[in-house]
Amino acid sequence: MQKLHTHKKKSMKRLRLSSSSGPKTVRTRKTTLTFIVITLIFAISSEIHHALAMILHFVDNLECHMNKAEGTAFYIFLWAVFINNVSNPFIYGVSDDRFRSHVKEMLKKNQDFKPNNRKDSKSSVSE
């Protein structure tokens, strides 16, 4: 009789620890989550925009039947597609350390170039 060779199964705990270790994996997960959030915000904002644009196109005199509050809400949601462009820097700022440090560095350099804050500028008041 021949003896069958069996492999030991890794426990789920060991499997999770081995698959989630390392800074590269953490960075990959953060990047994946960032792109998922950006994609969801884009999909939601563009779907709202396209749905309301179609309603505006197919319903005759829709704007005439709205009061001021309804019209304001309608057009705010119609142009909600721009929420995607506004939200991207905030999402990257929260999730990406390099992006945050580059923005801080850029703002710091911008402060140095303001006329009132320059160290080498002389006062414009003459004697």
Automatic annotation (TrEMBL):
Q: Does the keyword Membrane apply?
A: yes
Comp. bias (Basic residues): 1-16
User: Mind telling me which PROSITE patterns this protein's record contains?
Assistant: G_PROTEIN_RECEP_F1_2 (PS50262)
Q: Does the keyword Cell inner membrane apply?
A: no
- Locations listed in the record: Membrane
What ranges does the record give for the region Disordered, renumbered to this chain? 1-25
Which domain of life, per UniProt? Eukaryota
Question: How does this protein sit in the membrane?
Answer: Multi-pass membrane protein
- Official protein name in the record: G-protein coupled receptors family 1 profile domain-containing protein
One GO cellular-component annotation of the UniProt record comes to: plasma membrane
List the GO molecular function terms: G protein-coupled receptor activity
| InterPro entries in the record | GPCR_Rhodpsn, GPCR_Rhodpsn_7TM
